[in-house]
Amino acid sequence: MIVKTEGNINKFYVQSLCMLFFPGAKFSENEEEDKGVPVVSVSLRESEEGVEAFASIRLDAKMKTGSRFEKYKKEYTKNRTSKIAVGIAVFEAGKRFFGNVPPWGILTGVRPAKIAAEMLDSGMTPAAVKKTMEKEYFLNPKKSTLVTEIAVLEKKIIDSTDENACSVYISIPFCPSRCAYCSFVSYATPRLLSLIPDYLERLKNDIDRMFETIKAVGKKVVTVYVGGGTPTTLNEKELEELLQKITENVDVSSLKEFTLEAGRPDTVTKEKLDIAAKYGVTRVSINPQTLNDSVLKQIVRKHTADDFFKAYNIARESDIKYINTDLIAGLPGDTFAGFTKTVDEILKLSPDNVTVHTFCVKKAADILRYNSEVYSRGGGDTPKSVSYALVKTKNAGYVPYYIYRQKNTVGNLENVGYAKPGSEGLYNIYMMEDVHSVFAIGAGGVTKLISKSREMERIAFPKYPYEYLDMNKEPEKIDGMFRRIIDFFEEKR
Question: Is residue 462 part of a domain?
Answer without folding.
Answer: no
